[in-house]
Write a structure and sequence with these properties.
ten-stranded mixed sheet; three-stranded mixed sheet
Length: 534
């Protein structure tokens, strides 16, 4: 009640009920009013100025402070993206906002802070999805924050004229700068919500996991977080496009942007026009390397925000050395495998196109594509290993050299839902478990999909409690081990990992034979791209 007098004055201009007073806090840009009782929730708080007009494709700018009490009971618009889980009516460029869940009763509670970064391939997604609702997590004495960031052409367009505008002389990684700005907001403000700015864990799945991996090598993110959780990080092992350098038949990011026309004309286009323009360059189907597949609008090496290829920086130890928890799912490749490949001849042709002739022979034998194994099974395993598993292991191995508190898991639980859809432990299947939001599922973000009664059972509920408790335990202590939780060995001890399934056993060397073969193939590929630069 220390703000009672200013609140009485402010209430003259903002409708506030007596029951709301406990949910008003003062942040650096003004007063905000949330909702809830046991868990207080603050939604749609701006952490940066709306990136519209001349601020489109510029680094996030400071919020203009407000004088009245800002009602923060509903989510903001989601950032522009192709319509799918988020409807057109709920999208807009004024989307750079954070959400906070807290059960702290006092500003000096100093609870650990868990910052959730939503996924979506860097072209879609939103912190407003019910799958990411953090109320159950916040009941476990942790403050949870989520935020939106610009995506697709809005978050990653590089252009010579944009680079000329920039004080750093670069363009194209606005989404990563949004993430840095959101983490800076956490440092400035989270204490008033009962959070500890000295104990911040960043956490993401899919592109959110990739974002966490990228933030590990973004110099501007130094000191803004203290632990990292990467769930199914996507394409962290691949050479990525560069701002001004072409690599073989891969053009520079600036040249791709310049081909779209003058900057003034691009800034004058509507959101719908830019989305349509970006739809013409979205990742082509069935490509292992996203940058080779034509997805223009992704993170790039610009020398400032991303100093070099993330894989190269991780290998060299040039990243923020924090405790990490890294995990993958047993059937990551279900959504990404080339489903039009049905025969062994087609599989051989696809392998040659993706990996080259020599590597194709090796991988065909290793994944059983040259004999009696089902083609779909082999391609699913290969795609998951190449797109996700290989990069996850690279992060683990790099991190374990500098910090003993590094842990790995594999999610293998096949729920009744997964059996019904024949997707097994698919990409994103663990999200409802870790957030404690089952029966929500990543599948419910697909238009028209519904979870049916019986799609989850008591085994799933127990596993959800275990997984969410381990997440909170790690965010609190940098160690996922705790009372009534499975025993979890550190990764460095023989590449140990915990399997999240029906019994949660401790195992070693997850898919080592397959990942070793892929590492050798991609080492040659990285060397090839390094030579192209010289």
């Amino acid at each position: 009640m220390r703000f009672l007098l200013p609140l009485i004055f402010l209430a003259l201009y903002t409708p506030v009920f007596a029951s709301d007073l406990d949910n008003i806090v003062k942040i650096d840009s003004g007063y905000v009013l949330g909702s809830g009782s046991v868990v207080r929730v603050y939604r749609g708080i701006p952490f940066a100025a709306p990136p519209v007009g001349e601020l489109r494709w510029r680094a996030p700018q400071p919020v203009k402070p407000w004088d009245s009490i800002r009602i923060s009971k509903t989510f903001s618009l989601s950032c522009p993206q192709p319509p799918a889980a988020v409807t057109k009516e709920r999208m807009g460029e004024d989307c750079l906002t954070v959400n906070v869940w807290t059960d702290a009763r006092a500003a000096n509670a100093r609870l650990p802070v868990l910052v959730s970064i939503p996924g979506g391939g860097f072209i879609g997604g939103s912190s407003a999805l019910s799958l990411y609702d953090a109320e159950r997590l916040a009941r476990k004495n942790v403050v949870v924050v989520s935020f939106n960031y610009r995506m697709g052409i809005f978050g990653f367009l590089a252009h010579p004229q944009l680079s000329k505008e920039s004080p750093q002389g670069v363009s194209g990684n606005y989404a990563l700068l949004d993430m840095v700005a959101a983490l800076q907001w956490v440092q400035r403000n989270i204490a008033v919500f009962g959070g500890d700015p000295a104990n911040v864990t960043i956490w993401g799945e899919s592109a959110g996991g990739t974002a966490v991996g990228l933030l590990l090598v973004v110099p501007q993110a130094a000191g803004l977080f203290h632990k990292a959780i990467l769930s199914s990080p996507w394409s962290l092992s691949y050479p990525i496009s560069r701002l001004r350098e072409a690599q073989g038949d891969r053009p520079s990011a600036e040249s791709r942007g310049a081909a779209l026309g003058a900057l003034a004309a691009l800034r004058a286009k509507s959101v719908d026009e830019l989305l349509q323009l970006s739809m013409n360059t979205v990742m082509a189907a069935s490509t292992i390397d996203p940058d080779q597949g034509g997805q223009t609008y992704r993170p790039i090496v610009d020398g400032v925000v991303l100093p070099d290829d993330p894989a190269k920086l991780l290998t060299a130890g040039n990243f923020h050395h924090v405790p990490m928890l890294v995990g993958t799912n047993a059937d990551e490749g279900v959504f990404f495998a080339p489903h039009m490949v049905a025969t062994r001849d087609q599989a051989e042709a696809w392998l040659r196109a993706q990996f080259g002739a020599d590597a194709a022979t090796t991988l065909s034998a290793l994944y059983g594509l040259d004999h009696g194994a089902p083609i779909a099974t082999g391609l699913t395993q290969l795609t998951g290993d190449a797109l996700i598993g290989m990069g996850a292991r690279a992060v683990l191995r790099a991190a374990a050299q500098y910090n003993p508190k590094v842990y790995e898991y594999e999610f293998s639980r096949v729920s009744p839902l997964a059996k019904r859809t024949m997707l097994n432990a698919f990409h994103g299947a663990e999200l409802g478990y870790t957030f404690g939001t089952i029966p929500e599922s990543v599948l419910t973000t697909f238009p028209g999909f519904s979870v049916l009664p019986g799609d989850y059972d008591q085994t799933d509920e127990r596993l959800s409690r275990t997984m969410s408790a381990a997440i909170v335990q790690f965010a609190t202590t940098a160690d996922p081990n705790g009372p009534r939780l499975p025993k979890w060995a550190r990764y460095a001890l023989g590449d140990s990992y915990l399997e999240y399934g029906d019994s949660n056993p401790q195992k070693k060397e997850l898919r080592a034979t397959y990942l070793d073969a892929l590492d050798a193939i991609f080492l040659a590929k990285r060397t090839q791209f390094a030579n192209l630069k010289e």
